[in-house]
Amino acid sequence: MSDWAMWSSGWASCFPTFTGSWTGSTCSGDVVAIELSIRGTFLGPFETPAGVIQPTGAKLDIPTADFWYVRDGKIQEFNCHIGTSTMFAQLGVLPDFASAVAASAPQR
Questions:
Q1: Shortest CA distance to 44 belongs to which of 18, 82, 81?
Q2: Which terminus of the chain, N or C, has less C-beta within 10 A?
Q3: Which stretches within 1-108 are classed as H helix?
Q4: Is the pLDDT of residue 2 over 60?
């Protein structure tokens, strides 16, 4: 299974109602940029390195930007950037700064 297939199947189980809607696009030379809004409902377990976040029914509206790099009429590269900080805030997942500070403290 490709990385994309693995990634998208995981998201599909957590957010089975996801839909995307186009909000804008622009082209500059060989680059096409597309702005999207991804919407869905948190209905399935969300696996994280710290454990599973159980579904809450939260409604999500996540900003996303896709970049297509084209050469000689063929796509050379595709990058998708998802507003994960917005997504995590909408899921109620707050950053744990205290743990990050403790982990970065020099050993004595």
A1: 18
A2: C
A3: 3-14, 84-91, 97-104
A4: no
Q: How far apart are CA 85 and CA 91, in angstroms?
A: 10
Q: How many other CB atoms sit within 10 Å of the CB of residue 106?
A: 4
Separation between Cα atoms, residue 86 and residue 106, nearest integer Å: 31
Q: What confidence tier does 1 reach under pLDDT thresholds 50, 70, 90?
A: very low
Q: Which residues contact 80 (CB under 8 A, 6 or more apart)?
A: 64, 65, 66, 67
Q: Which residues contact 78 (CB under 8 A, 6 or more apart)?
A: 66, 67, 68, 69
Instruction: Give pLDDT, residue 39.
Output: 93
**How many domains is the chain built from?**
1
Neighbours of 35 (CB within 10 A): 13
Question: DSSP 3-state assignment of 95?
Answer: coil
Residue 63, domain extent: 3-104
Q: What is the CATH number of the domain that holds 26?
A: 3.10.450.50
Q: Report the percentage of the chain scoring pLDDT > 70.
A: 91
